[in-house]
Design brief:
Jelly Rolls
Length: about 350
């Protein structure tokens, strides 16, 4: 959101995931926006960026904290972009207003699942976003602080949303990301946008479908992995800019982004579970797709150690599987820090 986004170098683990899958996630922070209609967002959870100046992207809006631009209404947080003459906190008059909320100074997390149920606005030049920045932005600046774009949509692409990461050596036009398309415009309904961020890997989801993933081995030569420190959340609707282009005669104002909730989950460190499922002609070992192993291993009593089996290749729903044999099995990650094991007759 701080620079022109061009998707590049997608990397997939592929497969759909469920929220808080099998007790893996525990909610640690949330806002359900249950205040009375017309209320401001909870000041214990949300702060504001104010003013204009283009925000690094030649955007046209001035951000405010006025109820005309941000309020709770019918159980949703409303961020409203308006076409109006307004003089911002920087003393400059502009033609558009909107709002940009952040948890900076109030809430920040290292790793977790960050999700929001959002109905995006629509129209040429409209640019909603749900994203994250490193808390060290004030000292390290951007892009050294890192940026995770959980959701970006531009009005000229009504059926496409983007997930992107930015860091040193891959920022702005070189940001690394991918996109998800939909049969209907995303603005037609609410969708759940999420990122699952763990040590060494980041995954973006829409409605529990993983469509982009990024890991330490995807950092380009000369770049640096900066996703190992606290990040805070942001929500905003920009108007105009280098990437979406400016509003035109087709753009209808006001435009609203509706946020039903924002939730943050921490890893419970619950081990992944292996289970045996009987089939007509064979049995299969199954385990969650969120646990991509380096190897599936079987204990060999004679050798007194572990024999590595071939990697699984058959994704099915939210799980991977392979034909099972009798014995003691173990899934192992490449760093050997996490395993799952089970014994089957």
């Amino acid at each position: 959101m701080l620079g022109l986004l061009v998707t590049a170098v997608p990397h997939f683990w592929g497969s759909s995931l469920r929220a808080a899958d099998a007790g893996r996630w525990q909610m640690v922070w949330h806002d359900e926006f249950t205040q009375a209609d017309g209320s401001a967002p909870d000041p214990a959870k949300w702060a504001f960026d104010l003013g204009g100046g283009g925000w690094g992207n030649n955007e046209l809006q001035s951000y405010t904290a006025r109820p005309q631009n941000v309020r709770v209404e019918q159980g949703n947080l409303v961020i409203e972009a308006r076409r109006e003459d307004f003089t911002g906190t920087d003393g400059k008059a502009r033609k558009y207003t909107s709002a940009r909320l952040k948890t900076q100074g109030l809430g920040a997390w290292t790793y977790g699942r960050f999700e929001a149920r959002i109905k995006v606005p629509r129209g040429q030049g409209i640019w909603p976003a749900f994203w994250m920045l490193g808390t060290n932005i004030t000292s390290a600046s951007w892009p050294a602080c890192g940026e995770i774009d959980i959701l970006e949509n531009i009005g000229k692409e009504p059926r496409t949303v983007h997930g992107t990461v930015h860091g040193p050596g891959y920022s702005g036009a070189g940001g690394i990301g991918h996109f998800k398309t939909n049969a209907a415009p995303f603005a037609d309904d609410f969708h759940i946008y999420a990122v699952e961020w763990e040590a060494g890997r980041i995954r973006c989801l829409v409605d529990e479908l993983v469509y982009f993933a990024f890991a330490t081995n995807n950092v380009p030569t000369g770049g640096r992995w900066v996703f190992d420190r606290p990040f805070f959340l942001l929500l905003n609707v920009a108007v105009g800019g280098n990437w979406p282009g400016n509003p035109d005669a087709t753009t209808v104002f006001p435009q609203q982004m509706l946020i039903d909730y924002v939730r943050v989950y921490a890893l419970t460190n619950a081990p992944p579970k292996l289970r045996l499922e009987k089939k007509a002609n064979a049995s299969e070992l199954r385990w969650p797709a969120w646990f991509p192993p380096a190897a599936l291993e079987r204990a060999e009593a004679v050798a007194g150690g572990w024999m590595e089996l071939e990697m699984p290749v058959t994704p099915e729903l939210a799980e991977f599987s392979r034909t099972a044999m009798a014995g003691f099995f173990r899934l192992r990650l490449s760093d050997s820090t996490s395993t799952a094991s089970a014994t089957f007759p």
